[in-house]
Protein: UDP-N-acetylglucosamine 1-carboxyvinyltransferase
Amino acid sequence: MTALYVRGGQKLQGKIEPSANKNAVLPVLCATLLSEAPIMLRNVPEITDVTRIHAFFTDLGSTVEWDKDAHTLSIDHSTIPSSAQAKLPQAMRASIMMIPGLLARLGEARLEHEVKGCTLGAREIDPHVKVFEAFGATVSYEGKDIVFSKKGKGEGTRMWLEYASVTTTENFIISALTAKGTSQIVNAACEPHVQEMCTFLEQMGCTIRGKGTSMVSVDGCENFKPVDYTFVEDFHEIATFLALAAVTGGDIAVRNTQPEDFMLIDRTFEKFGAHVEHKDGWSRLNAPEKLVVQQNFTSHITTKVEAAPWPYIPADLLPIFIALGVRADGPAMFWNKVYEGGLTWHTELSLFGAHTLLCDPHRLITFGGDKLRPATVTSPYIIRVAIAMLMIAASIDGESTILDADPIRRAHPKFTDNIDMLGADVKWVD
Structure:
């Protein structure tokens, strides 16, 4: 068990250079399997899943050099032998996005039946299976393994997703690059990290039309160019540091070269009386004296934050706004339209003295403004829930402990070092 010990009550202040987005880095790493050309990736975060993929590539026979101090990763897959066999890492959800590249390169990939990830609820792989089958792959069971196999190139296809799944969209795009002709996906996910993967693929010489929209067309690609790519800042991490300023009464500026992605996020901060300013490549939140839930013009309707696929507020950010709701005066409703298991941790908030009501698996009301107390709480295996608990603990005078906080390391390298620089008193305890 890994726990975080937090001595709270300090107003966090300072400047932060955020890391890259895990949800952009992992699909890009998976997509590199398509290419025999040398690839250089910069601003690569030292996180758990990157470590796993690095180990997998090395075992596969790729030439990979990871300079953790310089945050660079050079990859050459031309050294993978044709006799290589691929049993994908079971401990991370991103494994499934390596299948298109492995099918194109080796003709087969194996995945354990239960693919792990954050404990957000049921996360089926059926949409991915339909994508692989649409491009000519066969999928079968062999013991505890799911075996994906394919001979030759598939034909371009058109697919209409039942819902705008990020990883299914990414798998469709990567698979389409290995097919003949043009493919199109309707109801595509358009999150910033999906767009960033497309930008990387375009630099590799791929043709993708409709990036950032719900309808994306992809041409099959024969030749992939060498590429030197630098990942942009993680909008999740930027929003998290801004929320830390709001919840602790502090003043934090975060490097942000894509403030155009923050219009709705900014408006959501405003719902709690907190204002974000974007200037000269930085985003800053100087907290108000007190967080207060802002009343709607339609006064009989509770102020709410609705999380759904982009361009809604991302479900991954909902926990940090719940932390604001706990601290702010007044009631607020939080609606997770994506995951049915994303709010079950609300019972831990009562240990801090917070008043919440779970209406159903998707909707939670916070009745903020109560005096909170330090506590020992347990995080589920959800990255930003662990961070939300840390945020609340950091805002309370006294010593708190967050058990099972290790999911933070899956997305945010040196997270505690960064908040220590801002004036927090936080340390890992094994």
